[in-house]
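hiii, so i know i said id send this last week but things got crazy w the move. better late than never?? heres the sequnce for the chain we talked about at the cafe, plus the structure i predicted for it. fair warning i was half asleep when i ran it
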Amino acid sequence: MSTIHKDDFIRSICDALQYISYYHPPDFIRALHEAWQREQSPAARDAMAQILINSRMCAEGHRPICQDTGIVNVFLKVGMEVRWETDSSIDDMVNEAVRRAYLDTVNPLRGSIVSDPAGKRSNTGDNTPAVIHKDIIPGDQLEIIVAAKGGGSENKSRFAILNPSDDIVEWVLQQVPTMGAGWCPPGILGIGVGGTAEKAMLLAKEAILEPVNIHELQARAPHNRLEELRLEIFEKVNALGIGAQGLGGLTTVLDVKLRDYPTHAASKPAALIPNCAATRHVHFTLDGSGPVDLLPPRLDDWPQITRKASTNTRRIQLDDIDPATTRDWQPGDTLLISGKLLTGRDAAHKRMIESLHRGEPLPNGLDLKGRFLYYVGPVDPVGNEAVGPAGPTTATRMDKFTDELLEKTGLLGMIGKAERGPAAIESIARHKAVYLIATGGAAYLISRAIRAARVIAFPELGMEAVYEFEVEDMPVTVAVDTRGQSIHEIGPREWKMRIGNIPVVTK
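okay and structure toks below
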């Protein structure tokens, strides 16, 4: 019989959250490196290179892989013979661990969780509470999985109750193109089939935490129907040509995971949950002998990669830019931007639009005319950092504000991640603005280009406050030009044609 002590349990989960904030699982890094070596699309290859370089930098510097340090998911399998030495509930202990991890002074993590989600949406300040799942199993040990799930990938989850005769592969191939690039491919698809609505979703969430091993399945014949489906979905999704960051390329998914559960004869619940390029999870066991000791991966597990500027890379000075400068930019052009830019996410956009509707001026210093607005909520800085990891957030969430901001403020350009919707693209073209993308999953790498940062509006919004960044050679790609041409439409279409017909897997 094992006795799990409160302090050991809290410390173990706290340490695990810090650990996964800066260490990718080695199996993910190996799979991404192999995909990078195979990739033929220059834009997708560069995006994967940035993710790999960022990952190694985070492993060396113990700083977050992504500015979105996630909503905490904890899966507990509690042995029936386990005893607890504690005066707190399991949930309270998990949340105390989250609080300590996210408020750590050496490596602070971003608090992204808001309470009153249908109302005021107030940030809890310490990323609590976690989402906790508990199972009771035979034995005298406590099995724990700790994961930090980014909002961009979580928002792309899909669910449907299919008819019993409907085809799972066909449903997945219908869903993936609608997910866009906001989930930061290349990543992992988790699929749950069966049970009830909530069971299918849980199956999919658990599936994406399994080891990346599709290469092993490819090397041998599948042993059952689930393995056949994994291979078929893997090959057909990659044949869509979506590619890294949605730029078009050979690899959209690194693995496909599928779990099922018996279900009612009248239904077929199906869930799809992606895990992004900031895949973060760790698995360990407590047996009463003390807290877990998580051994750091070997740095040799990370490839040494150096980015090379492409032939169409140009340096842009933002402080004296004018609309004429942007007119010859083409989708796919790579830029190194320097100068001052402003930041703004959902809450800041809402505040600005409300001010415009009331006929009030924007806060002092928040003049958007001729400026670029970066969709980011950074991690707090440590040491001599100007700002912590500061990668882009999904741009489509700002689409509903875009036309009014372009019309009423003279905003020249925006920087985010993933595609824009049709209405936003039409507005960008009409106002002769531009939309640029930074690589999702390269937050620490991007932050090295930020030389200074100061809050200029809405400080009460925390990480969603408006900052002014001074950047030097920040890498971005032109995603939508002044004519409304989008790389997220051009790239995948081109690479789907190059890849050719979707392979047919013999069943």
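btw The chain has a mean pLDDT of 95. thought thatd interest u
miss u guys!!
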